[in-house]
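re: that chain from earlier
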Amino acid sequence: MDIRIGIQNSPREINFETSQPVADIETAVAALLAGETGYLKLGDDKGNTYIVPSATFAYIEIGTEESRRIGFVG
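^ sequence. v structure.
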């Protein structure tokens, strides 16, 4: 699924694809917003890790878990 994370005072977003379950991502974001952690840590399909401090976190957009179709739709 596609993930987009907005950063305060930055015109660019962090955009990547991950195979992490939606429930895990929502739990991590809820912990961040509740003040339980000082950062949001997520990984992508390529093995990269993204850490966003809570002070700069603006928003997160979580895409659907559908796989992309290949070929023509008829």
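The first strand starts at residue 2 and ends at 7.
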